[in-house]
Amino acid sequence: MQLNITTDKKYIISSIILIVFIVILIKLFLLQIVEQSYKLSASNNVFRYIPQYPARGLVYDRNGDLIVCNQAAYDLMVIKNEVKAFDTVEFASILGISKEQVKASFIQIKRMKGYSPYKPSVFLKQISTKTYAILQEKLYKYPGFDVHPRTLRTYPYKMASHLFGYVGEVDSSIIAKNPYYQLGDYIGVNGLEKSYEKELRGKKGVKIFMVDVHNRIKGSYENGLYDTAAVVGKDIVCTIDAKLQSYGENLMVNKIGSIVAIEPKTGEVLAMISSPIYDPELLVGRNRKNNVKILQSDTLKPIFNRSLMAPYPPGSTFKIVNGLIGLQEGTVYPTTRYGCAGGFPIGRGVGCHIHPSPLAFTQAIQMSCNTYFCYVFRGIIDKPMLGSAEAGFSIWKKHVESFGFGNRLNIDLPNEQRGTVPSVSFYDRYFRKGGWNSLTIISLSIGQGELGATPLQIANLSSIIANRGYYYSPHVVKEIKEFDGIDPKYTTKYTTTIDSTWFDYVVEGMDMAVNGGAGGTALNAALPNIRICGKTGTAQNPHGADHSVFIAFAPKDDPKIAIAVYIENAGFGGTWASPIASLMIEKYLADSISRPDLEKYIQDAVLLDRHAGKK
Amino acid sequence: MQERNSTWGGLDWPTIFIYLALVFMGWINIYAAVYSDEHNSILDFTQRYGMQLVWIIFAFALALVILLIDRRVYFVFAYFFYGLALLSLIAALLFGRVVNGAHSWLQFGSVGIQPAEFTKFATILALAKLIGVFNFKILQPSSLLKISIIILLPAFIIILQNDTGSAMVYGALILLLYREGLPNWFMLFLLFMVILFILVIIASNAFILITLFCITILLYLIYGDKQKEAIIYAISTILFGLALYFTLKYLGYKISSTYIILFSMLIGTPLAIAYAFLRRIHFIYYLTIFLVVTTSFSLSVDYGYHKVLPIHQQKRINDLLGIEADPQGWGYNVNQSKIAIGSGGFSGKGFLGGTQTKFNFVPEQSTDFIFCTVGEEWGFIGSSVVLSLFLILILRLIMLAERQRESFARVYGYGVVSILFFHVAVNVGMTIGLFPVIGIPLPFFSYGGSSLWAFTILLFIFIKLDSSR
Questions:
Q1: CB contact under 8 A, A28 and B432
Q2: Shortest CA distance to A245 belongs to which of A220, A233, A262?
Q3: Structural domain tally of chain B?
């Protein structure tokens, strides 16, 4: 076996060496020429893309008052490997957190995606300017820590939290869906901030730096050739009247419900209140998550935007719709009179309150006679030439939907609910096919039963009546600065299926309800100088006492404001809802209150007991 | 022995030119690796490239001195140098400065010296003197013992210094010994052991033991003549093992399959030896020795790897073998090094254009990881040129060694070849993930006086020996 010719070994050794070098060269070839990922890794190593965050656009009210603006805040960043031992107690006290939280933060950053001890990680988000002022002077004591400036929202008028929504940090699902966003970016989460996110956010810029292994910036890449500047977000003029909004919020203290006021000629929302309200500042900054939790656990559901999301039964305000359909279909005439002896006597029957009898159309509106509108509703459903309740009901439904019920009005805010208008198929399922008729569904005649409408839809109804038959989709943005016009869908006129002449009778009835003397349901809404037209509602509901409802518009002949007021479980519409609406109208049109006593009475009222009015 | 009159005429200039080229390339790559805008003069002596220039000038002076000294000095004082080197190693171990956990530096004023670097040429000189004696029989036990002592003594002290990487270099001298008479089968056996070593780390013990058993049986089937008995033997061992396994399982004992296999193999061994004795088949003795040696090697590697080897060395090997990846931790060096080299592409990012090395993403980039700068800034072309220069140098040295008339010079030449080859292959191998990270420099390239001077001495003694052959 043994080779003795030693010169052969020279070749064997040379071959071994040659083979090893060839293996190394092959590996180099694979590494440098075949494999491309190292080039990317190298760029990831050395390039730091520092996003340049633009300031979010500001929001003004319809009179030019600034209502949403920005404040500076600072994210405290840490590069773990540069941190030296430090006085945690002092550090924690500067930041206003506990010593344990400091430790917890260190543990937490390690769990974050993409964590590296060489790169800055967010140690504490959104430090206030005040804390930053103290921290800044002592930052030299804490190597490895640094701050990144950010902007947060602030609200000069602490109001309209539901409408503005709030700004939060993007989560991984948003990042996955939209490549614009990166970890740490802010995004409008709700309300106006969400629906106008694209306009408000502006455009992020980026600065490209080269860093060394310790993440020290070594200079900008190619002298900033590839950097882009941040574009500031567009300012928005909102349709809201800040004074009216905060006045309404003030009136709604200790009441649950909603107020929506619309300018009928344009569909611009003047005020939108959902009560209970909460301070919009609660959802800004570091404590947001905590505060959201607290608000969510509140039984009065302050976060829930009742104006857009609560499908209340419309109650008696809906009699107007039924009346108009009856007039349009010719199944009732302005002169038609129906007697009322305390209720509608057919079928299960519907009760009524005490009022003169018989009544004609306008008086029936004025006094809100249940019986009258039961007859009107039956007339529509059982119209002889149509032949069946289903056919009559379909006609009725088509008219109802032309008022914007049962569908979104497409307001420029998220989470708007459709409300409900029942369908033939619904009743076919609920009873059975052919198993229902005008009497089975008689509750619809007085706005009860399977109907659900949001305060926005009810306010829109008021707006339609003020306009005598048409509406513009309600919206909250009047103008986006440096941008031509608003969405064309808000300048599109929607006309109802009811001829405008029929509206005069309704308007007359609503006028009399407020100003007509004896029998009017909302006499306490009347104002000497402003002609208000209104209609009360008392919405029965399964949650407790009846909701107090009122819709109104004013002035009668040139309406500038249409309003809907819902006070949950506050009983008769004329008790609470109508004076609130009246005060709102006066505030908006006259800018002063002539009835301070009434104002104080309303402000002081506590209507939080859901069962107070229920017998 | 006749000497040439002219020292200069006999010099092997190609070797010297390659040496000069490598030293120059090393210097500019150190400049690129350490380069920053604040210190951009290549003659700035506060920076490593400035210092390297000083080391280079010293190295040239050393080379000149070595060429001027009478060649007989190296032969006569070989053991003296060796003893001196050992003493300095011990001095470093006892009084040395600790760098990166190793007691391997002797401090003279502001200059630090790493004796381990200089021990290499001394050891080779001593080996050359031992083996170069006329009629030296390398395979005699006494010769092997002497060789082992000469090689293992410095290696052992260096291990004590906690610098295992530098100690491993001595393993490369196996090439020299092979050239001087170690048989081929021994080299094959070594290769087998290396493969076995890797397998032990990757695979389970049970798998290794079964494989070794099968190889033994296979060797017998190939070289032996009683195939039938071998098969019967194998099958009965397997059956015994299986029976043992199921019996124990049935009885409810939980014993690792490794032990069952080991036990079955041990039971069979005396039988095989008895059979060999009766039938006088000596071949079986060798096979039994093979089986016992490899088995105990595997088990001790397994034990040593998991229980004795420091965790960082274990992790480095795991990282290399792909058992576990940890690019931010243990694998950080190699990962960054691969990124730097890989991002160089075909033609590199150009001189001073390397971001990875310039911004310190690669640790130890001017010393052990200097090849990263070559890879990143000069690309595949540059890497190939550097490697080719080393290859040409080593092959040329083999050629020179072979043309020596004296064994002393030849043995020394092969020593230089072994050491250079090991350093280049392992250093470049570790930067590209072919070899675990052990901190040894790239000859002539890496920053540092000790390393540059030691390699210069190593090479130029041979050039001197060759020039006056």
A1: yes
A2: A262
A3: 2
Please indicate, yes or no, if residue B303 is contained in any of the structural domains: yes
CA distance B202 to B187: 23
CB contact under 8 A, B375 and A32: yes
ipTM: 0.90
pTM of the predicted structure, to 2 decimals: 0.64
Which DSSP string corresponds to B393-429? HHHHHHHHHHT-SSHHHHHHHHHHHHHHHHHHHHHHH
Segment 415-454 of chain B within 8 Å of chain A by CB? 417, 421, 425, 428-429, 432-434
Are B380 and A9 inside 8 Å of each other by CB?
A: no
**Do B33 and B168 belong to one domain?**
yes
Mutant choice from A38, A40, A121 vs B, greatest count of B C-beta within 10 A: A38
What digits encode the pLDDT tens for the residues A62-93? Answer: 999 999 999 888 888 888 888 888 888 888 88
B328 touches chain A (CB under 8 A): yes
- Does A113 reach chain B within 8 Å, measured CB to CB? no
Instruction: Work out the number of other CB atoms within 10 angstroms of the CB of residue B313.
Output: 17
A222 — contact with chain B (CB < 8 Å)?
Answer: no
Which of B191, B332, B355, B378 would best serve as a mutation to test chain A binding (most A beta carbons within 10 A)? Answer: B355
Here the CATH number for the domain that contains residue A98 is 3.90.1310.10
Q: Is residue A372 included in any domain, yes or no?
A: yes
Residue A513 and residue A293 in contact, taking contact as beta carbons nearer than 8 Å: no
Q: Clarify whether residues A221 and A323 are in a common domain.
A: no
Give the residue from chain A lying closest to B424, CA to CA: A21
Among A336-340, A555-559, B40-44, B460-464, which stretch is predicted with the lowest mean pLDDT? B40-44
Q: Using CB atoms, which residue from B37, B346, B425 is nearest to A20?
A: B425
Q: Do residue B156 and residue B252 come from a single domain?
A: no
Tokens at A169, concatenated: 């940090």
Structure tokens at B216: 């033994």
Residue B3 lies in a domain: no
Answer whether A303's CB lies under 8 Å from A296's CB.
yes
Residues A148-157: pLDDT tens digits? 888 889 998 8
Comparing CB atoms, the residue among B183, B355, B432 nearest residue A42 is B355
Cβ distance A32 to B402 less than 8 Å, yes or no, reads no
- B348/B402 same-domain check: yes
Does residue A216 form part of some domain?
A: yes
**B61 lies in the same domain as B158:** yes
Same domain, B358 and B290: no
Interface test with A, best of B39, B334, B361 (most A CBs within 10 A): B361
If asked whether residues B18 and B164 sit together in one domain, one would say yes
- Give the whole-angstrom CA distance, residue A411 versus residue A474: 5
The answer to whether the beta carbons of residues A521 and A546 sit under 8 Å apart is no
Q: CA of A101 to nearest chain B CA: how many angstroms apart?
A: 26
Parallel, antiparallel, or unpaired for β A236-238 and A59-60? parallel
Whether pLDDT at A610 is above 50: yes
| CB nearest B345 (choices: A18, A39, A213) | A39
- A216, A77: one domain: yes
Containing domain of residue A347, as a range?
Answer: 315-404+420-453
The token pair that represents A147 in the structure block: 């701050």
Question: What is the interface size between A and B, counted as CB pairs within 8 Å?
Answer: 123
Q: What is the pLDDT of residues B33-82, one digit of tens each?
A: 888 766 667 777 778 888 899 999 999 999 999 999 988 999 999 999 99
DSSP annotation string for B119-134: HHHHHHHHHHHHHTST
Question: Which residues in B lie closer than 8 A to residue A116 (C-beta atoms)?
Answer: 328
Which domain covers residue B55, as residue numbers?
13-178+334-467
Separation CA A224–CA A31 (nearest Å): 31
Say yes or no: B198 and B168 in one domain: no
Count of domains forming chain A: 2
Q: Where are the alpha helices (DSSP H) in B203-310?
A: 205-223, 227-251, 257-279, 282-303
Do the Cβ atoms of A39 and B425 come within 8 Å?
no
